[in-house]
UniProtKB/TrEMBL annotation:
SUPFAM superfamilies: Homeodomain-like. Keywords: DNA-binding, Nucleus, Repeat, Transcription, Transcription regulation. InterPro entries: Homeodomain-like_sf, Myb_dom, Myb_TF_plants, SANT/Myb. GO terms for molecular function: transcription cis-regulatory region binding. This is Myb-related protein pp2. CDD domains: SANT. It comes from Nicotiana attenuata (Coyote tobacco).
Amino acid sequence: MGRQPCCDKLGVKKGPWTADEDKKLINFILTNGQCCWRAVPKLAGLRRCGKSCRLRWTNYLRPDLKRGLLSDAEEKLVIDLHARLGNRWSKIAARLPGRTDNEIKNHWNTHIKKKLLKMGIDPVTHEPLKKEANLIDQPIQESDQNKINGHQQVQVVPECTSVTAAATSSELDNSSYSASSTSSSENSSSITDESKLVLNTLGENDPLLSSLLEVDAPLVDSLWELPVSSEEQKKFDNMTSWDDSLNWLLDCQDFGIHDFGFDNCFNDVELEVFNTIDDMENKQ
DNA sequence: AATCTAGGCAACCGCCAATAT
DNA sequence: TATATTGGCGGTTGCCTAGAT
């Protein structure tokens, strides 16, 4: 009955990956592509669980991953998407090319969450903390809301009590805040008409958001297939040392999708999104 | 210089829907 | 149809590092 176990628990290594393990995994996937993760450790000569291999690849070794802190545009997008989707990190990550759910989750917990709290914004509901407290005692005064850490563009939407504004995250410290939400982010699957209106308005002013906020937009992850060009493969095969390989990978991660020859994996709309992001980053 | 503390991040854990047998 | 496993996800942990004392 059923399938074979993913891996026998005995003899499976845990903890940080070594450079040698990374090399084996990269070599295997570049040669064979992603197939059955259960078989990967055995075929690649790794004493790891298939699950661990998948995680290591998707979160760290994938050549199209970006490195470094999230840009202002990305941070803004994360906040907007979180307001709509809640803690559905994989959905959010799918709309940020080159970023992983783990990375976004970590960035949220370590940076964005604090920024929002500092501003008096509840990172869960995306509503002013002061307002929530007041809901218990008394209705909030609109003038009070606008005073909260100087939220210049915060406006209260009647009935749905959504908070919306437009700003880049670099302005967060200057107390502008960008988000749209239903009264509960966890109920994001049913977007209210008011929220749709807010999102449409955001999209009109921001082509990037317009593309990325499309609920039915194709997800980047679903297209991930690793069609590495023969030229790139040859380059990798000719590398004499692990350092060469690692440097090559890191170089690739500094480039964009196009530099790596992934253009064929994406349709016109997705490529347009990538180009927009590239343009925005170049302007910074 | 040694120790303590907090922040950041990679990796693991446990759950669940999808799927193979 | 029932059962077991896979793959994927979100939550959490624990290690490492930098800054403070």
